[in-house]
Specification:
- The protein is about 45% helix and about 15% strand.
- The protein is globular.
- The chain has a 4-stranded parallel β-sheet, sandwiched between helices. Strands 7-8-11-12 form a 4-stranded parallel β-sheet.
- The chain has about 375 residues and is α/β, with parallel strands linked by helices.
- The protein has helices spanning about 30-40, 50-60, 65-70, 70-75, 80-95, 120-140, 160-170, 190-200, 215-225, 255-265, 270-275, 295-300, 315-330, 330-345, 350-365, and strands at about 5, 10, 15-20, 100-105, 145-155, 175-180, 205-210, 230, 240-245, 250-255, 270, 305.
């Protein structure tokens, strides 16, 4: 049983949907140790607990660029077919243990070619690991559906190539496209030709925006990137004005961009712990209670809750939801709402989303 409960229910037992989960941010510390030993990579710690603590400490920098440096180690041990297969397999098993019934795993294949793999071989290795894990989960009487989000690094120059890679694998595990990496100075419009190609092929995209940069980043993601979801999108709250008036009445005014995102129910892939670590919410405060996620949910935005990087944040989706219960007194209905928001934004067919929505509703009802 996890330590996180809501209305007397163990949150780990609730069916969940994870839309923003990085493969290279979700390795088990013991796996990092063993894979590093295989390739002779020196690590900053020699046991799993100490290594996990090192990742957590390094990630609490308050800076997205500094946070991203921790991935130098995780990507280094994911340069072979064996390494990618193992990490992907364990990742899916960890999703299932977390109560996730549908997950999208994002990662950037271009970062995994240092030991001779081609882009396609890398994607195939990850897919093989995913499928082996799905079979294992099903052999234990449970079910999980998992797709790959193929990411291009926004500050490099391979987006067109990575878009084509995603399209080659669209019927073999790839369900969507993403761009990741430092936001400031690298807007989605810089990669316009890749997004044009994807749009013509009717292939969905989510874009990291509103994390390391502000409203301009979000606007560019929506219009140049044709983003169907916003990777984080936290800083859409910059376009919301909250005023305290007489008799404690609260007046909230939304700017045009915030209205657009809310009215069209564009899912926000919010990751509370990560947003705190990277300084994304620094303008509002320095604790989870200062995160605008609760305000956004109460205003009717399509809020979803995600782990982002399980290793760096020392977290799970169970924990992230539990933290929201502790910080904002969310109840079971709130957790079901954000989970159904994630279902609505999932990159799968309408029929699959309807089936998944029923599964989530039944799962919550069974635990009430």
């Amino acid at each position: 049983m996890s330590r996180y409960e809501v209305d007397g229910v163990d949150i780990q037992t609730l069916p969940k949907v994870s839309l923003h989960d990085h493969l290279d941010g979700g390795l088990r510390p013991q796996t990092v140790l063993e894979l590093a030993d295989e390739i002779g990579l020196e690590l900053p710690a020699s046991d799993a607990d100490a290594l996990g603590a090192w990742f957590a400490a390094q990630s609490n920098s308050g800076s997205l660029p500094e946070y991203l440096k921790t991935f130098d180690i995780t990507t280094a041990v994911m340069q072979t077919e064996h390494g990618l297969h193992r990490v992907a397999k364990e990742f899916v098993l960890d999703l299932a243990e977390d109560g996730v019934v549908y997950g999208e795993i994002r990662w950037a294949p271009e970062q995994h070619l240092q030991r001779g793999l081609s882009l396609d071989q890398a994607v195939e290795a990850v897919q093989a690991g995913i499928e082996e894990a799905i079979d294992l989960v099903e052999s234990h009487g449970r079910g999980i559906r998992v797709g790959q989000l193929i990411s291009a690094m926004r500050h490099l120059d391979r987006a067109d190539e990575i878009a084509e890679l995603a399209l080659r694998h669209r019927d073999k595990g790839a369900v969507g496209f993403d761009i990741a990496g430092p936001e400031a100075g690298f807007p989605p419009s810089r990669l316009a030709s890749a997004f044009d190609r994807l749009a013509r092929a009717h292939f969905p995209a989510t874009v990291h925006a509103g994390e390391g940069d502000g409203l301009a980043s979000i606007e560019d993601a929506l219009f140049a990137g044709r983003a169907l979801r916003l990777g984080h999108g936290t800083r859409i709250a910059e376009d919301i004005e909250v005023e305290q008036e007489r008799d404690d009445a609260i007046v909230v005014r939304l700017g045009e961009l915030a209205e657009w995102v809310k009215d069209r129910q564009i899912p926000l892939e919010l990751s509370p712990s990560s947003n705190l670590q990277t300084g994304t919410i620094a303008q509002w405060g320095d604790s989870l209670e200062d995160h605008p996620i609760d305000l956004l949910l109460q205003l009717g935005f399509a809020v979803t809750v995600n782990p982002d990087n399980r290793l760096q944040s020392g977290t799970t989706l169970t924990r992230e939801l539990g933290l929201m219960v502790e910080a904002f007194e969310w109840d079971l209905d709130d957790l079901e709402e954000v989970t159904q928001n994630a279902v609505a934004g999932a990159f799968c067919s309408l029929e699959e989303r309807e089936e998944l929505a029923d599964e989530i509703a039944d799962g919550f009802d069974d635990l009430r």
